[in-house]
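Incident log entry.

Two folding requests arrived from the same account within the same minute. Monitoring flagged them as a possible duplicate submission, but the sequences differ. Recording both here for audit purposes.

Request one:
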Amino acid sequence: MTMQQMLVGMGGPRDDTSLDGIGGYPTFEIRPWANSGYVKGAGDVTWNSGNQVYNVRDQSHIGRWTNNRSNNPSANQSPTYSTSAGVRGWQVYQGNAPTKWLRFSGGSTWFIGGAADHSYMIWLRSPHNNTGDWHVGGQDGTPTWTSGGGHTNATAGMYGVRSSQWERIGHGYDLKFGNATTHLSTGSSWQCLIWTCQSNGQIDLYYDGTLVASSGTNSGMNQANTNFFLGRSWSKQDLSGMGGYVAWNAYWKRELTPSQISTIWNRNKAFFGR
């Protein structure tokens, strides 16, 4: 048993990961591999408790595991965990009506609205089909749960893959770029994705610390910050969620630089067995 696995079972008091020294901590950060512990820049905080998940950067910001299609859902589901390379992650489910998902309230304290620079990091493994279409989550407006509908009539900012390309979709824009299947693996290794989004609509995608794809600009980008989902797609379009496992999530209300992203990868890859 690795030290990481022992700490998961104990609740995990230490912080072997690091987001310091890159120009400021994220406004939103969630971790599944322990229930509580020390986080650099935040102190000793709660990470997970039953069917609730805590933003380690703001303990008043609490997410709920749910399958309730509501703008204020009940925490009616329990998370399913799985450990790989000594790191416990959350299981998420494919389909336009997944088994369960994680929902946080939005707001400008944690997420940008409209068109503004921001960055989003997620560590994932075993996406259900690296040639299929899926979204891992992202920002959403007030959910409409239409089981279909147009791409341009509700605000959102969802991250995923469609037609073998990286995708970010929302109100008035649907940016697909690069070749996701060249990089994504359906194996058991943890993979680090970081999207950096500029106010002019350009998106850069970093895979394991390296820039692998860039979109063009888009003046129509308009992102809601009413909700944040992990494990499902945009409620207006109901595209498939990602089947697989997710771990560390973080969100900055600014654009990370290539050097900062390289630092994140190099400092933390060993923790994830890379």
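Request two (distinct sequence, not a duplicate):
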Amino acid sequence: MLTLNSQGKTLSSTKPLIMGILNITPDSFYQKSRVTAVSEAIDLAGHMLADGASIIDIGGQSTRPGAIAISANEELDRIGSIIEAVVKQFPDLFISVDTYFSEVAKQVVKAGTHIINDISGGQYDANMFKSIAALNVPYVVMHVNDFKDEMHTVKNETSIMPVLHDFFTTTCTRANEAGIHQLILDPGFGFSKSPTQNFEIISNLSTLTTFQKPLLIGVSRKSTIYKTLGITAAEALNGTTVLHTAALLHGASILRVHDVKEANEVVTLCSYLQ
């Protein structure tokens, strides 16, 4: 049973959850996840909700390789009106915001956000852990290199699992000391890792269940899939489905996806295999 509590609401499920991706960016790597207008965001969020998403993850900053970083204020300018509109249109929906800025986290939680999804794992903003504890919302911590300009740098080709175990041991301790009570772990598929290391994560995901925290997996249409297969991100749905299946069978609790309907089908079928 996975249970998340935030802003007076409870999200509880006996099956893994689907988190749909809603990018308010001009340059995220998969075009169909990108919107700019409020009406487009409402339409896409509605489709994802109808297809089985329990959470919508709203992002205002692309973290693809080569993307230009923007400030906290720019990020808020992009996502502020979208969050307000989605909260108003879908009052029962759990909303996540993808940010590594503590100031953004504060403002979006005020606007009705339920989860903060931090791709830096609290490493890019010294105030993030303290802010999350005060906000008392679920917090996704992802593994990545500890310097922002090395987000996509592969520092070595050795086994990644000992690195992940060390990182999450330290992070769980920090979170506990800060007073963060709802931690979600994301091993950071595609960030600071080689393709071999990415596949290693999926194959050995069950070892991270020892932390007794929900595991979020974000493999959807990523380059490890489409470059391995010699195709494009637009053609990578089948490969994504294969890795989603493996992740679920190895302990994933939340799938962060572009294609909600197909991911929900994977969750349903995998429930008969466990």
